[in-house]
């Protein structure tokens, strides 16, 4: 979680390659590197809010400068390729797709859809990612979401 929140894709890749134990957590119950090695390291470990590193990478994109946005986008796309739980919902019921729509991240939306994420999952407000896109008049995302349902 820490490497993702700092936007450092090199560290994220190195931790995954070395199968670093990402299960030790800090006071916010976010994974932090401990130097230990685990055969079953998981990039799907969620914090106390139910957010995985992918959720955090997408969510954090709206709060940092352009340089960080580029790094976070790269991390998000990297995590999409390596995560086995792309449909995982956080405590608000949001999936990575919900968050990508809300963050206006078209490339991440495309990447998630290419991985065949579940488009019908609803969040705590009983809304799908398509409904969120429609509410925000994000026409390109609406088109992508609609054409992928065929």
From TrEMBL:
Extent of Polar residues compositional bias:
32-45
Transport keyword on record: no
**What SMART domains does the database record attribute to this sequence?**
ANK
ANK repeat segments: 1-27, 92-124
**Keywords for this entry?**
ANK repeat, Repeat
Composition bias (Basic and acidic residues) maps to 22-31
**Gene3D superfamilies in the record:** Ankyrin repeat-containing domain (1.25.40.20)
Which parts of the sequence are annotated with region: Disordered?
Answer: 22-45
Q: Which InterPro entries match?
A: Ankyrin_rpt, Ankyrin_rpt-contain_sf
Q: Say yes or no: keyword NAD present.
A: no
Q: What is this protein called?
A: Ankyrin repeat domain-containing protein 1
Protein source organism: Culex pipiens
